[in-house]
Every structure is written in structure tokens, then in C-alpha cells.
Amino acid sequence: MNEETLQQALRTADNLCTQRGVRFTAQRRRVLELICRAERPIGAYEILDQLRAGAKAAPPTVYRALDFLLEQGFVHKLETLHAFIGCTHPEHPHASQFLICSDCGRVKELEDEAIAGSLRALEDANGFRPKRPVIEVIGTCAHCTHRHTQS
Amino acid sequence: MNEETLQQALRTADNLCTQRGVRFTAQRRRVLELICRAERPIGAYEILDQLRAGAKAAPPTVYRALDFLLEQGFVHKLETLHAFIGCTHPEHPHASQFLICSDCGRVKELEDEAIAGSLRALEDANGFRPKRPVIEVIGTCAHCTHRHTQS
DNA sequence: TCGTTTTCGGAATATTATAACCCCTGGGGA
DNA sequence: TCCCCAGGGGTTATAATATTCCGAAAACGA
Ligand SMILES: [Zn+2]
Ligand SMILES: [Zn+2]
Ligand SMILES: [Zn+2]
Ligand SMILES: [Zn+2]
After folding, report:
1. Is the CB of B29 under 7 A from strand C?
2. N or C: where does chain B have the smaller number of CB atoms within 10 Å of the terminal CB?
């Protein structure tokens, strides 16, 4: 994420917090910034290390900020990686799918209507009321596949 | 899982191991049995506690057996719960979806063709080669929903 | 039988996440 | 003004999950 995109993301978060009547504190802002600056999913303890470069910090500091950012939908947690990634469209709540490249570590967030639909059908057929869908596919991205066939 | 089903599952695992030329050791058998006996997903350290009732054991003992059982497809790992569950049809490799009730803890394993199809389409559109899909939906099962509306 | 590979025991350690306690600050009344 | 309260956050400790490493034992192949 380049500097401009980052600043835009932080402004968006700030505005959303104002709208929602919640506080976008310096701490929360800093953690969101670190997550967005990382080109890949970042773990809670990596965030902690970077926070510690500027001030004292302990795990609860990070996890409290993460809880907030997750609640507000500004970041997503990747369960298979125990890591966090900035959301690409935090304006509205949504269920997304993640394609995780185990080769380069990059992740693509998608909102596919077909998947959401089949999932709904599956849930309906089973009388299941979904709260939080987790769809993460681990594999190799187009870029890395191409790189392999070349070499 | 009742006693008969359990014995059947263990026999199936044993046969598959013979076919595949891998060893279904006492350790591995014991761990599979504990997972199958649990009516719900069971954590590695719960398995460890139960193993310790009969003999000495340490975390690597459990994790080694789990690695084997996962490789062979006899059990699945639920990433959102950090827990393990017996596979309902270990004969063939497959990608399944899990409906996880956060109320009663029960999990339903499904193999839905529509979801698998939309996921394939999504992957193809992105030039992504999948290795391991993780699809887990946390929510409330039909039974628990019903129980709530009654009370 | 011998040498190789796989499995296993066990200690230590790494990694991820939460609990509990206290203090501070800012805002809304009495 | 003072009191009180709720949210945010600092700090220590601990829980929960998972892996690394070393070496011995067992199984396997020839
Ligand atoms: Zn998103
Ligand atoms: Zn890649
Ligand atoms: Zn299965
Ligand atoms: Zn239920």
C-alpha cells in the first residue's frame, strides 16, 4: 500500500469512527497504519515489535487495538495464518474470501457473489444461521505459478 | 459416535493404511480413537490429557499422531477452533465445508458441489492454484435455533 | 544379520492469546 | 465544584497452542 492509499485508508477509518460514535485513538490508528503498511498479513507480535520501536507496549495493547479494528471491520483476521490484513472496503460490513499464496505470502481479498450464494443455500438447507464465515484458500498465486514454470 | 461406528472407523483407517503402505501404529490408533469418541471437536491438549491417563506423553506425541492422521485424511483440523474432528468419509481425499455451532459446539461436515464449483471458478479467474481450502462457518445450528425460539 | 529409516520419549522453547489489576482521563450530572 | 462512571490503556503474569531438538528404540529392507 503506497503512502497516498494509506492516508486515504486512515481518513476513511477516522470518518467511519466519527459516524459510528466510537473513538479512533492514537493507539488504534497506529496499529491500523502498521497493518496497512505491511504488504502481507502481519502477526500480532510483529505489530508489537514495531510498536515497541516507538514506545513501551505489551501484548494486550496490540490485542485491544486489534479487537477494535476487527469489530469496526477495518481489518480481517486470517485464521490459517494467525495474522491480520487491512480490509480493502471497510465502508460496509461484508463476508469475503481470501486467496493466500503460501509461496510469496500475498493475500487477495475477494467478495464473490456466487460463493456467498452457494454458502447461503448450504446454510438454508441445514437450517444453520451463520454468524461468521471463514473462507481461506491456501495455494499458489498466478504470479508465483508463472515464476515456477519459467525456472 | 457409538461403539460400533467407532470400531468400523478404526478398521477403515487400518485398511487404508495397509493399502497405502503406511503404519497405523498403536499411538496413532489411540489418538484417532480419542478424536472419534469425542462428540465435538477436541483440542490437542485435551487429547494429551486423555493419553496421559494411560501412559506418559508430551505435546510432540500428540502432534505427531495428528500430523499423520491429517495427512492420511482421517481427521480434519478446524482452524477457527484449534481443534480436530474425525472425517466422515476418509476413503477419498476431499475438500469439505464445516458448519460449526457456537452454541452447542457440534460440527457438521459437508461436501457441497455448488460451493466447490464456485470456489474453482473463483480460483480459475484469479489464476490461483489451490492446495488447501478452509471453509468454516460459525453460527447456530438448527437444533439450537429451535431451542432458542421455544424458550 | 546389518544398516537404514521411521517412530517415539522427553525436555525445552516458541508462538499466540487472555486474565486480572490498577490508574488515568473526560464527560455528565448533583 | 465535586462526585461518579465508563472507556481506554499500562503492566505483570499466565494460559493455550505448537514446534525444535536430541537421542533411543523399533520396524523395515536386503
Ligand atoms: Zn474486507
Ligand atoms: Zn505468490
Ligand atoms: Zn472429511
Ligand atoms: Zn447447536
Report:
1. no
2. C
